[in-house]
From TrEMBL:
One example of a Gene Ontology biological process annotation: cellular response to phosphate starvation
Name of this protein: Putative RING finger protein C6B12.07c
UniProt-listed PANTHER family: SPX DOMAIN-CONTAINING PROTEIN 3, SPX DOMAIN-CONTAINING PROTEIN 4
UniProt domain SPX: residue ranges: 1-302
Lineage: Eukaryota, Fungi, Dikarya, Ascomycota, Pezizomycotina
Length: 302
């Protein structure tokens, strides 16, 4: 629960806009849903130990689980847990099963024998010589040659589907929010470019801040605030590194008195807008990282 507390505290303390916080990942709700999934699996007889053992089994093993988030070729998330089990007379053919695993499989065997949600993978009848006496295999307790049935059954996971539906909707909400913010920032950049063009336009008879703006943008490119392009250091920055680079840029502008020495008052206003724009980009990056971390923590939960 420590991360849930930290996540909530970070959302409240980092001055994110209220409409961002409303669309943040509902970490606590998702954790509660995960606990429901655990109870659902335990009710089926699938504790962690049993799940690990059956999920790691080969497909040709007497008992094997398969878990898929979506059907092949589909972009929609639909969790599906299926069990492939080798049955003989309604009993799983595996002498090494734990009591918990065997209890789970006995439930499945009852469903199969009752004809509920069954998909037969075939029945293989062993061929025997008329004059051969069947012998019992001491390792399995079954008669050699009596191969039995391979059955597959889908295990309904109500809360698993609920969890991924909730998570998918939350991620979609975040994507929509990012699209809205990107559109707004694009408009801000367009307006800023008009302001800078107006105050840096060269003229023989009026003041111009062209040289200062040129130096400011050269410094900004050198600072690589959000993205680096050097051979030894390239790629997108995380929020901590972006903050450090942005601070370096602002300090350099201050040291060189570039903003103070503007000749046109509108240049100071445009520069202030430029800094606010970068602050918004940084805040957006911090919000994205926080939510990505929350999703990562959720998906790694056991």
């Amino acid at each position: 629960m420590k991360f849930a507390h930290d996540f909530k505290q970070n959302l409240a303390s980092q001055d994110f806009p209220p409409h961002w916080i409303e669309r943040a990942i509902p970490y606590s709700q998702l954790k509660k849903c995960l606990k429901k999934i655990q109870r659902e699996l335990q009710d089926l007889g699938l504790d962690q130990e049993t799940l690990r053992a059956l999920l790691s089994a080969e497909e040709t093993a007497p008992v094997a689980l398969q878990y898929k988030l979506r059907e092949s070729g589909s972009r929609f998330v639909r969790p599906k847990l299926t069990v492939n089990v080798h049955l003989r007379d309604g009993v799983a053919v595996d002498a090494s099963l734990t009591p918990t695993s065997r209890g789970f499989l006995e439930k499945l065997a009852c469903e199969i024998l009752d004809g509920h949600e069954r998909e037969s993978l075939g029945h293989i009848q062993a061929s025997r010589q008329d004059d051969t006496v069947p012998k019992e295999n001491p390792s399995t307790g079954f008669i050699d040659g009596d191969v039995g049935n391979y059955e597959t059954i889908e295990v309904p996971l109500v809360f698993d589907a609920e969890f991924f539906d909730m998570l998918q909707n939350d991620v979609n909400e975040l994507d929509a929010l990012q699209a809205e913010e990107q559109k707004q920032l694009t408009n801000e950049i367009t307006e800023l470019s008009k302001e800078v063009s107006a105050v840096s336009r060269p003229s023989r008879f009026s003041k111009s801040d062209l040289a200062r703006w040129r130096e400011i943008f050269e410094l900004y490119l050198d600072s690589n605030v959000f993205f680096a392009t050097q051979e030894c250091d390239h790629g997108a920055r995380n929020s901590q590194r972006a903050l450090k680079q942005l601070q370096w840029f602002q300090n350099e502008v201050e040291k060189r008195n570039l903003a103070r020495n503007f000749k046109i008052s509108q240049s100071r206003q445009a520069f202030a807008r430029f800094l606010r724009l970068n602050a918004s980009l940084l805040k957006n990056l911090q919000f994205q990282e926080l939510n990505k971390l929350a999703v990562s923590k959720i998906l790694k939960s056991e």
